[in-house]
Amino acid sequence: MRVRLRHDRAAVLAALGLATALFTGACSDGTSGGTSGHGDRSGADSSAQAGSSTSQNEGLVRLNVAKANGIGSVVTDGQGLTLYRFDKDTAKPPKSNCEGECLKAWPPVLADGSVEASGVDKSLIGTVTRSDGTKQVTLAGWPLYRFASDTAPGDVKGEGKGGAWYAAAPDGKKAKANGGGGKDGGKDNGKSSGNSGGYGY
User: Where is this region: Disordered (predicted)?
Assistant: First the structure.
Protein backbone atom coordinates (compact mmCIF):
# COMPACT_ATOMS: atom_id res chain seq x y z
CA MET A 1 0.00 0.00 0.00
CA ARG A 2 2.80 2.36 0.83
CA VAL A 3 4.49 1.56 -2.44
CA ARG A 4 1.30 2.28 -4.30
CA LEU A 5 0.93 5.66 -2.57
CA ARG A 6 4.46 6.57 -3.43
CA HIS A 7 3.82 5.70 -7.07
CA ASP A 8 0.56 7.66 -7.06
CA ARG A 9 2.26 10.64 -5.43
CA ALA A 10 5.05 10.52 -8.01
CA ALA A 11 2.53 10.36 -10.83
CA VAL A 12 0.63 13.36 -9.44
CA LEU A 13 3.80 15.39 -9.05
CA ALA A 14 4.89 14.50 -12.59
CA ALA A 15 1.49 15.52 -13.94
CA LEU A 16 1.60 18.81 -12.04
CA GLY A 17 5.10 19.49 -13.35
CA LEU A 18 3.99 18.84 -16.93
CA ALA A 19 0.92 21.06 -16.54
CA THR A 20 3.01 23.85 -15.03
CA ALA A 21 5.53 23.64 -17.86
CA LEU A 22 2.78 23.73 -20.49
CA PHE A 23 1.06 26.69 -18.82
CA THR A 24 4.31 28.63 -18.46
CA GLY A 25 5.19 28.02 -22.09
CA ALA A 26 1.78 29.16 -23.25
CA CYS A 27 1.97 32.34 -21.19
CA SER A 28 5.47 33.01 -22.40
CA ASP A 29 4.42 32.62 -26.02
CA GLY A 30 1.39 34.81 -25.51
CA THR A 31 3.41 37.53 -23.79
CA SER A 32 6.10 37.39 -26.43
CA GLY A 33 3.53 37.56 -29.19
CA GLY A 34 1.81 40.48 -27.50
CA THR A 35 5.05 42.38 -27.14
CA SER A 36 5.93 41.68 -30.73
CA GLY A 37 2.48 42.77 -31.78
CA HIS A 38 2.80 46.05 -29.90
CA GLY A 39 6.22 46.62 -31.41
CA ASP A 40 4.92 46.00 -34.92
CA ARG A 41 1.95 48.26 -34.32
CA SER A 42 4.20 51.03 -33.05
CA GLY A 43 6.43 50.64 -36.08
CA ALA A 44 3.44 50.70 -38.38
CA ASP A 45 2.15 53.85 -36.69
CA SER A 46 5.56 55.51 -37.11
CA SER A 47 5.70 54.48 -40.75
CA ALA A 48 2.20 55.78 -41.32
CA GLN A 49 3.08 59.09 -39.74
CA ALA A 50 6.25 59.33 -41.82
CA GLY A 51 4.30 58.45 -44.94
CA SER A 52 1.68 61.05 -44.13
CA SER A 53 4.35 63.69 -43.60
CA THR A 54 6.04 62.76 -46.86
CA SER A 55 2.79 62.81 -48.82
CA GLN A 56 2.01 66.27 -47.47
CA ASN A 57 5.34 67.53 -48.81
CA GLU A 58 5.09 65.79 -52.18
CA GLY A 59 4.30 68.18 -55.01
CA LEU A 60 5.23 71.22 -52.95
CA VAL A 61 6.61 73.94 -55.23
CA ARG A 62 8.73 76.84 -54.03
CA LEU A 63 9.12 79.98 -56.10
CA ASN A 64 11.93 82.37 -55.30
CA VAL A 65 13.56 85.38 -56.94
CA ALA A 66 17.23 85.65 -57.95
CA LYS A 67 19.44 87.93 -60.03
CA ALA A 68 20.55 86.66 -63.43
CA ASN A 69 23.35 88.18 -65.49
CA GLY A 70 22.05 90.57 -68.12
CA ILE A 71 18.35 90.10 -67.44
CA GLY A 72 17.84 91.23 -63.87
CA SER A 73 15.47 89.48 -61.48
CA VAL A 74 14.11 86.10 -62.47
CA VAL A 75 11.83 83.57 -60.83
CA THR A 76 13.48 80.33 -59.75
CA ASP A 77 12.35 77.05 -58.27
CA GLY A 78 13.35 75.65 -54.89
CA GLN A 79 16.70 74.48 -56.30
CA GLY A 80 17.50 77.94 -57.66
CA LEU A 81 16.92 76.96 -61.31
CA THR A 82 15.53 79.65 -63.61
CA LEU A 83 11.90 79.35 -64.66
CA TYR A 84 10.69 80.33 -68.12
CA ARG A 85 7.56 81.28 -70.02
CA PHE A 86 6.70 80.43 -73.62
CA ASP A 87 5.41 83.00 -76.11
CA LYS A 88 3.23 80.38 -77.81
CA ASP A 89 1.29 79.84 -74.59
CA THR A 90 -1.52 82.13 -73.52
CA ALA A 91 -2.18 83.73 -70.14
CA LYS A 92 -5.80 84.77 -70.70
CA PRO A 93 -6.98 82.10 -70.39
CA PRO A 94 -3.93 80.18 -69.14
CA LYS A 95 -2.97 77.47 -71.63
CA SER A 96 0.19 75.50 -72.34
CA ASN A 97 1.08 74.78 -75.95
CA CYS A 98 4.29 72.90 -75.16
CA GLU A 99 3.51 69.23 -75.76
CA GLY A 100 5.26 66.07 -76.93
CA GLU A 101 8.91 66.60 -77.89
CA CYS A 102 8.80 70.12 -76.50
CA LEU A 103 8.54 68.75 -72.97
CA LYS A 104 11.91 67.01 -73.21
CA ALA A 105 13.70 70.35 -73.39
CA TRP A 106 11.14 72.34 -71.40
CA PRO A 107 9.71 70.29 -68.51
CA PRO A 108 6.71 72.03 -66.96
CA VAL A 109 6.66 73.07 -63.31
CA LEU A 110 3.99 70.78 -61.89
CA ALA A 111 2.23 71.14 -58.56
CA ASP A 112 0.37 68.28 -56.88
CA GLY A 113 0.30 70.22 -53.64
CA SER A 114 0.72 73.77 -52.46
CA VAL A 115 2.90 76.50 -53.92
CA GLU A 116 5.06 78.63 -51.65
CA ALA A 117 6.59 81.90 -52.79
CA SER A 118 9.23 84.34 -51.61
CA GLY A 119 9.58 87.63 -53.47
CA VAL A 120 6.66 86.76 -55.75
CA ASP A 121 3.15 88.16 -55.35
CA LYS A 122 1.09 85.12 -54.32
CA SER A 123 -2.00 86.57 -55.96
CA LEU A 124 -0.27 86.10 -59.33
CA ILE A 125 0.31 82.38 -58.75
CA GLY A 126 -2.10 79.79 -60.06
CA THR A 127 -2.28 76.50 -61.93
CA VAL A 128 -3.59 75.30 -65.26
CA THR A 129 -4.66 71.76 -66.07
CA ARG A 130 -2.60 70.30 -68.91
CA SER A 131 -3.94 67.94 -71.55
CA ASP A 132 -2.65 64.94 -69.57
CA GLY A 133 -4.50 66.04 -66.43
CA THR A 134 -1.47 67.30 -64.50
CA LYS A 135 -1.51 70.79 -62.99
CA GLN A 136 1.13 73.27 -64.13
CA VAL A 137 2.09 76.31 -62.08
CA THR A 138 1.30 79.65 -63.68
CA LEU A 139 2.52 83.16 -62.94
CA ALA A 140 0.22 85.99 -63.99
CA GLY A 141 -1.49 83.33 -66.10
CA TRP A 142 1.69 82.19 -67.88
CA PRO A 143 2.59 78.50 -67.49
CA LEU A 144 6.09 78.06 -66.05
CA TYR A 145 8.84 75.72 -67.29
CA ARG A 146 12.41 74.72 -66.53
CA PHE A 147 15.05 74.38 -69.26
CA ALA A 148 16.73 70.97 -69.41
CA SER A 149 20.16 72.47 -70.16
CA ASP A 150 20.11 74.64 -67.03
CA THR A 151 21.90 72.57 -64.41
CA ALA A 152 22.97 75.09 -61.77
CA PRO A 153 21.51 78.14 -60.03
CA GLY A 154 22.09 81.24 -62.13
CA ASP A 155 21.99 79.39 -65.47
CA VAL A 156 19.80 81.15 -68.05
CA LYS A 157 20.72 79.07 -71.10
CA GLY A 158 17.09 79.05 -72.19
CA GLU A 159 16.81 82.82 -72.45
CA GLY A 160 15.64 83.82 -75.94
CA LYS A 161 15.67 80.22 -77.25
CA GLY A 162 13.74 79.89 -80.47
CA GLY A 163 12.73 83.53 -80.16
CA ALA A 164 9.93 82.34 -77.91
CA TRP A 165 11.35 81.36 -74.52
CA TYR A 166 12.17 83.92 -71.83
CA ALA A 167 13.03 83.84 -68.15
CA ALA A 168 10.02 84.87 -66.09
CA ALA A 169 10.21 88.06 -64.03
CA PRO A 170 8.53 88.19 -60.59
CA ASP A 171 5.52 89.95 -62.15
CA GLY A 172 5.09 87.20 -64.75
CA LYS A 173 6.46 89.29 -67.61
CA LYS A 174 9.68 88.57 -69.48
CA ALA A 175 12.68 89.32 -67.33
CA LYS A 176 14.92 92.12 -68.50
CA ALA A 177 17.45 94.36 -66.77
CA ASN A 178 16.12 97.79 -65.77
CA GLY A 179 12.50 96.67 -66.04
CA GLY A 180 10.51 96.10 -69.17
CA GLY A 181 9.98 92.70 -70.63
CA GLY A 182 11.96 91.07 -73.38
CA LYS A 183 11.02 91.68 -76.98
CA ASP A 184 7.51 92.78 -76.14
CA GLY A 185 8.89 95.85 -74.34
CA GLY A 186 7.15 94.86 -71.13
CA LYS A 187 3.69 94.92 -72.67
CA ASP A 188 1.74 91.82 -71.76
CA ASN A 189 -1.76 91.39 -73.13
CA GLY A 190 -1.89 87.73 -72.18
CA LYS A 191 -1.41 86.53 -75.73
CA SER A 192 1.60 85.33 -77.68
CA SER A 193 3.75 88.16 -78.96
CA GLY A 194 4.02 86.34 -82.26
CA ASN A 195 7.69 85.47 -81.80
CA SER A 196 8.12 81.97 -83.12
CA GLY A 197 11.09 79.88 -84.14
CA GLY A 198 10.14 76.49 -82.75
CA TYR A 199 10.61 75.18 -79.28
CA GLY A 200 14.22 76.32 -78.96
CA TYR A 201 15.87 72.97 -78.27
Answer: 30-56, 158-201
